[in-house]
Amino acid sequence: xxxxxxxxxxxxxxxxxxxxxxxxxxxxxxxxxxxxxxxxxxxxxxxxxxxxxxxxxxxxxxxxxxxxxxxxxxxxxxxxxxxxxxxxxxxxxxxxxxxxxxxxxxxxxxxxxxxxxxxxxxxxxxxxxxxxxxxxxxxxxxxxxxxxxxxxxxxxxxx
Length: 159
Description:
The relative contact order is 0.20. With 159 residues, the chain is mainly α. Residues 155-159 have low confidence and may be disordered. The protein has a three-stranded antiparallel β-sheet with strand order 2-1-3. It is built from eight helices and three strands, in the order ααββαααααβα. It has helices at residues 4-18, 24-42, 61-67, 77-83, 90-103, 108-114, 121-125, 137-151; strands at residues 52-54, 57-59, 133-134.
């Protein structure tokens, strides 16, 4: 299994190929969304890092701690690379490239708003005043299952 840093590294590589800027918020949200779709498609997690419900949305604390120093600026891919543990397989690279193609043009704020929908795992897990509430992979999978079924017409086949 991969770590969130392996996934983040791939998103930063794709952004660099396009000449795009990826700030910490965008990287966190893309990495979270990748976990959701991966759970929905393959019924297993893409990475093993904890995801928590914080005041402003779902957060992967391990990735947050490393990238927060960049504020609203470009995340340094060399720093993330120091934490990456594995090379992604071709299937995972293709999966992340497809996600990048769909979500890569959105800003961190736009991605954040997608993760804050009323029935989202974050909305269901977050309790005002509490911190570090786990967002369960099963809740994430259930939520993203809805998107996968909607896009495939409910039968698992792409329309």
